[in-house]
């Protein structure tokens, strides 16, 4: 029996947002037993922060979309921009995206950055591996380990999340770059296995293709592809028990999705969708592609309809500090301006609730800290790191 199956009824947690404080300035503790959330500003002054990762000492690396990487102490002190970040194409949805640590970071100090890369007037998502200096001031030994093919014009739908599996393989989420077949000359790139657009790829830590990827040996497919039919996946995390990759992606008008990403899976875009074409009535429309399901195409485990929440960032909670949350999943919301808390029973969403409406900010990333608390990035020119506790 799962931990949720014995819970006959589930009621939404009572939520209260306390006044935001300066970095760790001693905001009052609110009892964990009464369900009230405590929101603390750990750091501010970040310019559109996009990705966050914790270092072994509890400090953080945070990317800023215009192309800067910063070190942040647990007390919220921001470093100067770290030298050696690759040149990024900043504009629209493009820029510096996620940051991840090598599974053997303690020995090799390697980090990974995803970003929009320009060449010859076209752009695509790329991933660089580099070594962080001991003083955390510079990156060295850089090598680009992955480039999305093909690069195309435009500034939208890059994807860009990074997630290391337990076996040391790296997943990279890739948007379809708004090539969904609706404009003259477009093809349905997300359904084309000869393109990285609208895919999630799986690579070794040095960029090589694992021999057990699903399309290795298929001459019509790019071998790094793990799954396809995605629109713009901007959140990804590894399930702490099953080891499976989960991802959230933006729908069009409505139809945002949470998916369990399986090997070789086709997630339908743009042949099927739970969302509508922009400008249509969201309460009465034909879904993009003309249908919500089709043979051979995998269904999401939950969707946001009829209005988009624009999910970005995804984290499983697997710490003992807040026992009520153990096994749950948290998703940031950009258009929805808040944090979604989803209660799970295996791969099924039992219930979900919207948190932090009172904060009213776009949430770009969600991470569980080593202290068992949640950390969020707000998507703003004066972006913040928020700490969430009970």
Features:
single chain, 390 residues, mainly beta, Neuraminidase, 4-stranded antiparallel beta sheet, 1 helix, 23 strands
Could you please describe the fold and organization of this structure?
This protein has one domain: Neuraminidase, CATH 2.120.10. A four-stranded antiparallel beta sheet has the order 1-23-22-21, with no helix packed on it. A four-stranded antiparallel beta sheet has the order 5-6-7-8, with no helix packed on it. The chain is mainly β. It has one helix and 23 strands. The model is unreliable at 1-34 (pLDDT under 50). Strand 6 (110-119) and strand 7 form a beta hairpin. It is globular.
Tell me the overall shape. globular
CATH topology, which one?
Neuraminidase
- Which structural class do the helices and strands define? mainly beta
Distance between the termini: 27 Å
CATH architecture: 6 Propeller
Number of extended strands: 23
Topology:
Blueprint: E1 38-46, E2 49-54, E3 60-64, E4 68-72, E5 96-101, H1 105-108, E6 110-119, E7 122-132, E8 139-147, E9 159-164, E10 170-174, E11 199-203, E12 225-228, E13 233-238, E14 245-249, E15 256-261, E16 302-304, E17 311-316, E18 329-333, E19 338-345, E20 348-355, E21 363-368, E22 374-378, E23 383-389
Antiparallel strand pairs: 1-23, 2-3, 3-4, 5-6, 6-7, 7-8, 9-10, 10-11, 11-12, 13-14, 14-15, 15-16, 17-18, 18-19, 19-20, 21-22, 22-23
């Amino acid at each position: 029996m799962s931990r949720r199956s014995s819970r006959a009824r589930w009621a939404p947690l009572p939520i209260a947002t306390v006044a935001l404080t300066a970095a760790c300035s001693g905001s009052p503790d609110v009892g964990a037993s009464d369900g009230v959330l405590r929101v603390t500003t750990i750091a501010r002054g970040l310019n559109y922060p996009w990705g966050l990762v914790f270092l072994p000492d509890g400090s953080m690396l945070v990317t800023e979309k215009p192309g800067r990487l910063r070190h942040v102490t647990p007390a919220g002190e921001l470093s100067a921009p770290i030298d050696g970040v690759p040149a990024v194409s900043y504009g629209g949805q493009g820029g510096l995206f996620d940051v991840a640590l090598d599974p053997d970071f303690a020995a090799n100090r390697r980090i990974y950055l995803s970003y929009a890369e320009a060449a010859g007037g076209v752009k695509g998502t790329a991933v660089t591996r580099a070594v962080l200096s001991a003083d955390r001031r510079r990156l060295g030994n850089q090598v680009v380990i992955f480039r999305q093919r093909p690069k195309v014009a435009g500034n939208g739908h890059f994807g860009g999340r990074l997630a290391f599996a337990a076996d040391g393989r790296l997943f990279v989420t890739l948007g379809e770059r708004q090539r969904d077949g609706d404009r003259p000359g477009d093809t349905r790139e997300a359904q084309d296995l000869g393109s990285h657009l609208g895919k999630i790829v799986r690579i070794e830590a040095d960029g090589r293709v694992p021999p057990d990827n699903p399309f290795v040996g298929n001459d019509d497919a790019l071998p790094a592809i793990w799954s396809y039919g995605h629109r713009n996946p901007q959140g990804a995390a590894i399930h702490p028990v099953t080891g499976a990759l989960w991802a959230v992606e933006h729908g069009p008008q409505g139809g945002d999705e949470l998916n369990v990403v399986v090997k070789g899976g086709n997630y339908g875009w743009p042949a099927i969708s739970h969302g509508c074409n922009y400008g249509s009535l969201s309460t009465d429309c034909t879904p993009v592609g003309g249908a919500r399901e089709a043979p051979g195409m995998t269904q999401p485990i939950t969707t946001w309809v009829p209005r988009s929440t624009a999910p970005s960032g995804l984290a499983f909670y697997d710490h003992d500090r807040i026992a009520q949350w153990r096994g749950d999943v948290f998703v940031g919301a950009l258009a929805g301006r808040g944090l979604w808390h989803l209660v799970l029973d295996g791969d099924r969403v039992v219930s979900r609730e919207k948190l932090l409406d009172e904060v009213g900010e776009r949430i770009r990333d969600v991470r569980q800290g080593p202290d068992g608390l949640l950390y969020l990035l707000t998507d703003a020119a004066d972006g913040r790191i928020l700490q969430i506790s009970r």
